[in-house]
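Inputs:
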Amino acid sequence: AQRVTQPEKLLSVFKGAPVELKCNYSYSGSPELFWYVQYSRQRLQLLLRHISRESIKGFTADLNKGETSFHLKKPFAQEEDSAMYYCALYNRYAGKSTFGDGTTLTVKP
Amino acid sequence: EAQVTQNPRYLITVTGKKLTVTCSQNMNHEYMSWYRQDPGLGLRQIYYSMNVEVTDKGDVPEGYKVSRKEKRNFPLILESPSPNQTSLYFCASSQYGTGGLEQYFGPGTRLTVT
């Protein structure tokens, strides 16, 4: 069974501080992992995908297969980063998507 | 404009009264999915469809039905709603590409069952 764990429900940092949102997964195959973000009163939207290894809004995420992790990082948090962040795993063979429970990030001024 | 739409956006109903939440996408996506979002439980997949006439159960399918008769629409049906189905529901669609399965989400439907 596939599983995604986000151990922190709430995370609070000060503006300019580094931030790391943790994501661990359980999946027997080769995972496809994503980070989605939901700003207040907005719909979920894709932030990052591990396949493209991109940096969006200063965020990066590296897939670590040995530790089965896909942590989201940003060196200098901004107030506009305050949102709910979801880590997600897609099983392309079964078509099933699994999301973590989400982490609410608050960036304080 | 490329988008996923859901209707209604808000619904209050009573236990046992059948309801349908519609979902439509205009991006010609093959993959569509329904999720429910509950506090502390994150997003849980209810049903998904990889193409027309192909649907599969997600993690929490009990009490729900879906159909995929045409590519653009993927309605969620609650035959006999119960209070534990009070939740925020999201529909999503995607087209598998080189970037993986990026899902586009609808605005959400807030359902209250009394």
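Chain B has a mean pLDDT of 93. Flag for discussion at group meeting.
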